[in-house]
Amino acid sequence: MSHSLDRIGTDRPPRVRIAPSPTGPLHIGTARTALYNYLYARHMGGAFVLRLEDTDQARGSIAYEKDILDGLHWLGLRWDEGPEVAGEAARGPHAPYRQMERLPNYAAAAERLLAADMAYPCYCTPDELESDRTAQEAAKLPPRYVGRCATLTPAERAAREAEGRRGALRFRVGTGVVAFDDIVRGRVEIDVANLGGDFVIVRGDGSPLYNFTVVVDDADMEISHVIRGEDHISNTPKQLLIFRALGYPEPRYAHLPLILNPDRTKMSKRKSQTALSDYIAQGFIREALVNYLALLGWATGTEEEVLSIDEIAERFDLEAVHKGGAIFDRDRLEWLNGQWIRRLEPGDLIDRLRPFVEAEHVARRIDWIPSDDELRAFLPVMRERLPTLGAIGDLAGFLWVEAVPVDPAVLVPRRWDADTTRDGLAAARSTIAAVGEVTFEADELEPPLRALAEARGWKAGDLFMAIRVAITGRTATPPLFDTMVALGRDRVLERLDRAMAVLGGGHRR
Question: Which of 66, 140, 238, 269 is catalytic?
């Protein structure tokens, strides 16, 4: 394949890619990288390519691949070109898009490097390499390949082959400085002396390594911009050397800031929740996650924060991405998620809540699954307080149980004793029972109950807390009178009776 320089020229629509390795679930950082590639492609009218780097057969799995593909689909990141998935044929002119199906491409590129003496077979044994590392450590030198096989003659190579040694292929790094203009970080210059010497691009068993395969694939797929995490900066000079050795045009690079924990340590699965699937399972919605991830390292330049993926793509500017690490703030994500939940149409919100309500039933935390009408009736109150869809059980589960457990210690307000609480609940029950079933609405319930508290010399907050705990089992709920309406008159009266029984008495008829 010919690779003339104008093929990745600035006058062409950009071609970007996300190239995950299916060796673990979709990481929140990989999701952010995929999103930035997608946004740049959509903003510039370019192509978004998905490529699966599946050469790590030992750690890779179909389950991880499915998790990654499902996560990208769930986020709404539709790729323009990519591999066959779920029975759908591969899309795009540069198939295959799986590295294990591209092995002949790597073999051909390796032969070219060998023929040009830009690479050579290395027969060093693991013991020899370890001995070199040990000596370098003892001398307080950085580890690097000593070049033992760099100048072997054909006869010496043949002798080692005759001994049964299988040569790995090492790339000659040469000398000098590799420089490139990073879209995010500006001018980057790295002396090749800091690359650890000639590095392996193909193992002795013939399997190609990352820094080599990524170059061949990016060139074959005409990738114009490589947008990835800053942890890849150390790979970039190696890849640029290979691009130049093979005569391929170089893509432009943009290295994104890392996502950090609040203590500014790198977000990792040992210290943080990093799998996108975990956030989905907790009830974060796609609009909010996309919105939040877009703002992890980039800002609109305005006060606006709640933006759809299309609005973000319209404004996205790769050159405005921040250099510094982006702090992952769970509270901010929950706030943004709440903003998006409140923007959903009622029917859409009910559809999205349904799996979480059903999960509460499966876990036996609720006794029945509410109908759409039951959910819809409580939506105006509930949606204002939902940080995630998964919070539905904690917020409203008391509505869908036969009876709530009531702790006497929680039922009695701090300024009251058990007798006062029992009297308060009994008086409240009579007041509530006097409200007709037809007029059982929040604005019909609140005035008489406030009047009751005033007439008895009670603080309204104490009376209302006792009622709240009696009918929900909790001290924190949506607004009390809306909660009573959602429960219905008969269930409120029944729960008040049960609570009074817990205190050693019942309704005094």
Answer: 269
